[in-house]
Structure formats: C-alpha cells, structure tokens
Design goal:
By secondary structure, the chain is an alpha+beta fold. The chain starts with 5 loop residues before the first strand and ends in a 15-residue tail after the last strand.
Length: 308
Amino acid sequence: MSGRDGFVVRCPGKVNLHLEVLGRRPDGYHELRTLFAAVGVWDELKFAVAPAGVLELSVEPSGVVPTGDENLVVRAAKVLTEGSGRARGARIHLKKGIPIAGGMGGGSADAAATLLGLSALWDLDLDIATLLELGSGIGADVPFFLIGGSAWGTGRGTELVPLPDLPAWWVVLLPGKEAVSTAAVYRALRAGPVDERPQSEVYQWIERGGEAPFHACRNDLETTVLAQWPGVARRLAAIRGTLPLLALLSGSGGTVFGLYSDRTAAERASAALASHAPVIAPLLTREASRVRPSGEDIRWKLPRFGST
C-alpha cells in the first residue's frame, strides 16, 4: 500500500547500555540516568484508513499482546484523535519481532511509530515538540523512539540528549520466555528518596570521548530482576561466559545482551550460545533507526536531532 490509503513502517528495539536509578521521586516515578541505544530488531506496523470513529488493532502472532486500551498503540491513536479535535479512523496491523516484556521497549517503539504513522495518515502536521510531549504521556521510553540512534535519558527517561552515533558495535540478545513486568520490578526495588549523586564515568565519557568505560556501565534494576527470575540470571551468566565488552540486563525486562566489537565477534558468541536461541543485531545509527514508511512516497515528516 502507499499514499494516504495506507503504508507499512518498521520500528526498532533498544537496549540500555547503562541505567542508574537515583531514587523514588515524590510523584511516585523513579529518577533515572540511562544510555539508550537502538538495535536492529524490528516490529512492523501497517496503517490503513478507516471510517471516522473506527479504530482497530490486530496483532501477529495472534494473542501475544492485547489489542485493547492497554496496548500502547491504541493509547497513542486515541491521544492523537483526542488532540486533533475531530473523529478519525484507522486500521492498524502490528507484526511483533521485538521480544515482548523483555526490556527492549517494543510497546513504546510501537507507540512512537503510531504517533508518526497516524500523523502522516491523517495529515496532522505535528511538530516534533508536540510529538515528544504526547509520547512522554504514553510511556517513558516513547520519546527515545521518536529520536532513535543513541541518547542520554534523565528524569523518567523522557528528558533526552541525542548523542552522536556509537561505534559499529553488535549485540547478542537472549530474550527468554518469561515476561518480566516493569511495574513489578519497580515495586520490588527498594529505592529511597532521589540521591543527586555525581555524574558517573559513563556520562563523563559521553562528554569527553575516549575509550568507553565498560567497567562503569551497570543496570541498577539487575539485582532485583535476577533475584525474582532465575532464568534471566542463568542467561546472563551464559552470555558473560563469552567475554563480551559488556553484558547486562536491558531495561527492566528479561532480555539480556552482550555487546561485541563487531559482527564477527557477535556471530562467534551467538554460536556458543545456540542452546539459548540467541538473536544477533547491530546497534543502529540515528538514520538507520528512523521510523519511516517502506517506500517514502507519502507526505512524511521525520524528527532530526544531533549528528548522524
């Protein structure tokens, strides 16, 4: 499909190369410092026009995620219709490729793609500031997927500084079958009030460049997740056995990853981890991670930030 009749877009997943939890804020959210990086694992969404008031979502494989208001795609679509002040319609088909409840931001990526896709389908002509504001109200990771590439996130993760593209590193992902609930992880996390600690070596590296301080990268949610989901702990131990540059839990979810200097090293590690059903993918540049339609023959505006 093309033009205003409909189109297909892809949106990538992400990993967190660093995630600090500074404490629990008065509003109940947690204050974070995190390094986002888009990775080449994709969901695909097909958008088609529908009569005003009709909003339908179908998912492939069937049943893997809900199709009602709890799905961030539906929430994003409703936010746009409410904000536009007039009834609109769309049929959306979501094909899942990003691990579900795995800490890779699939739901947020889908919401970002929906904001961009329906803005184009409905000729809303929204600027990036408006999209970022709408996205932050839908989910903490949604603004990152509107930017893509790599970014430093603070606050709930919605306050972003787009960064220059990272080196051409590759990841090996071990998603696992257990669904790790973000809400459950944060409930179990024993975080006190926000601690305004000094910036880490990771931030200093972002500012100054030089050799990446992998020894300083961490995920403050990891201990909580590993204690409650032993399968995640076993996969993380397995991937650390391949001696990657870095091995961490991604976000709050059950996916663990190893970071490697190039594709050859990642393929070698993937072969050693074959019994864990690994997924191999590159880190993406901002240009490569842009949410865009397949074939760009429609009116389509894309946010651009920083260097690519």
